[in-house]
Amino acid sequence: MQVLAFHSISPRLAKSRAKVYVEVYVAEVPIMARGFGKLTAKKVEHLSKRGMHADGGGLYLQVAEGGSKSWLFRYKLHGRARWHGLGSLRDVSLEEAREKATDARKVRRNGADPIQVKREAEAAARIEAAKAITFGAAAKRFIKANRAGWKNSKHADQWQMTLLGTDPNGKPAKNDYCKTIRDLPIGAIDTTLVLRIIEPIWVSKTETASRIRSRIEQVIDAAKAKGEFKGENPARWKGHLDNLLPATSKVRKVRNHPALPYRRLPAFMRDLREREGVAAAALEFQILTAVRPGNAVAAKWDQIDRQTSVWTIPAALMKSDAEHRVPLSKAALAVIDRTEATKDDSEYIFPNTKGRPLSDASMAAVIDRMNELERRWIDPKLDREIVPHGFRSSFRDWAAEHGYDDPVAEAALAHKVSDEVIAAYKRTTFFELRKRMMKDWAEYCARPSSSDDTVVPFRAQS
Q1: Considering only CA atoms, which of 235, 245, 223, 217 is closest in space to residue 159?
Q2: Residue 174, pLDDT score
Q3: How open is the CA angle 75-116-185, to the nearest 5 degrees?
């Protein structure tokens, strides 16, 4: 330490300067020299005398009767001494206790109460824990809350299968896409976890991956509205995942459903009309109306207007999210009449034994049975058994070769107009033209046998 000389100045000035030098020196003295650090790890271990043992700076080791030891921080608040527990010696070492005491002194310097600060932190932690919810629980809650708004029960079933991994009967779904995140707190889900689910199927199952992404996004948005998720939604597409994955329009592949050449429709319809049962009737109705199989089996009695011979499918049930009016031919109405003769209390025209709509698979099973004895109803190009959805392709080919323009046929199939410019100017659904077209289509399907529609195609040569 530098020796200070004050003999050459006045006594009063010397006393003032000496005070400054002493204060600076004391501030630079190590903690140990200022009454801190009185305890050592070895001393702490061997202390057995009951009472408070000061380390300095307000930190004490308390030795209780029986030998248990714990750390306390002593401070004054409003003139009264308070003791702040810092933990047991078993859990908190001497070094850790000193760090906690330092933090407590900082709290006091800021004018706060360390005990109150700790209580508030613990309360906040309890609130966060109470708000914690797993992704699976959040998804289940979302489905339950929105089920009433989904007029098509299959919509809820699809949500359940893709997010919860179970079918409507509670059995494991074929593909459990969200298994990796279902038991995680929803607040822990990040972009990496979302990508782990959708990235592997983004190209091979683009439509499925896109729907799963959208569903995860909606579940997280709902949780965010409840305060259970903070930050940006990791499943958001625009401005987020669109920077990491190619657009669906660039990777989506057109899937060709095995279809019957339209010239063979009359022969198929004759075979089909010999079949009995609700599923066979539903398949005939689907062919005559050219709708998607899912719309056919979900048809309800209150959607049919007998006076105008129109079936109105609500927008919520349509892939295009727009209401679709289907002109019903006499043949299509005849199918409804036959079904009505055995009508029960179900709201569906083609119900299963439980009163719910048939599944698409039930109509495909009709075709399976029609091919049991002889493999007649196959797609000659794909060499595969035809499926219900393929009849829309048969109808489209028939319309093109029988003088119906593309817009009319596309409107009948309820296809979205891909060209945005054309869509902006399109103001009609060609309903009157479609009435005539569906009448012609029904008559074509019922026409007498000819050489064209009785030919059974040979297996395609490889």
Answers
A1: 217
A2: 84
A3: 135
| Total residues belonging to the chain | 462
- Listed in sequence order, the residues at least 6 apart from 184 whose beta carbon sits closer than 8 Å to its beta carbon are 134, 135, 193
Q: How many CA atoms lie within 13 A of 212 on its CB side?
A: 26
Residues 146 and 272 grouped into a single domain: no
Q: Look up residue 193 and give its two tokens.
A: 């976890």
Give the pair of three-digit tokens for residue 34.
């200022």
Whether residues 210 and 98 share a domain: the answer is no
Query: Which of these, 191, 189, 190, 143, lies nearest to 166 by C-alpha position?
Result: 143
What is the distance between the alpha carbons of residues 229 and 139, in angstroms, rounded to a whole number?
13
- The b/e string for 216-234 (b: 16+ C-beta within 10 A; e otherwise) is bbbbbebbbeeebbeeebb
Alpha helix positions (H), 275-389: 278-289, 293-297, 330-340, 360-370
What is the span of the domain harbouring residue 417?
A: 262-445
Flag whether 71 is in a domain: yes
Rounded Cα–Cα distance for residues 114 and 384 (Å): 76
Residue 73 CA: distances (Å) to CA of 36, 42, 103, 113: 13, 20, 10, 12
Q: What is the total count of domains within the chain?
A: 4
Please check whether residue 460 lies inside any domain of the structure. no
Please count the other Cβ atoms lying within 10 Å of the Cβ belonging to residue 173. Answer: 18
Alpha helices in 110-134 (DSSP H): 114-131
pLDDT at residue 253 in the model: 63
* Residue carrying structure tokens 């359940």: 160
Q: What pLDDT band is residue 18 in, cutting at 50, 70 and 90? A: very low
| Residue 44 CA to its chain's centroid (Å) | 55
Helix, strand and coil in the chain, % to nearest 5:
50, 10, 40
Cα–Cα dist 157/153, whole Å: 7
Torsion sign across C-alpha atoms 449, 451, 456, 462: negative
> From CA 392, how far away is CA 134, in angstroms rounded?
42
Alpha carbon distance 286, 355 (integer Å)? 19
Q: How many CB atoms sit inside 10 A of residue 70's CB?
A: 18
Instruction: Report pLDDT digits (tens) over 414-433.
Output: 886 544 434 444 556 788 99
Q: Show the beta-strand stretches assigned E in 156-313.
A: 304-305, 310-313
Do 321 and 239 share a domain, yes or no? Answer: no
State both tokens at 12.
């009063």
pLDDT, mean over the chain: 84
- Which residues lie below 8 Å from residue 380, measured CB to CB, with a gap of 6+? 261, 457, 458, 460
pLDDT, tens digit (0-9, with 9 covering 90-100), for 92-133:
999 999 999 999 999 999 989 999 988 888 877 776 665 678
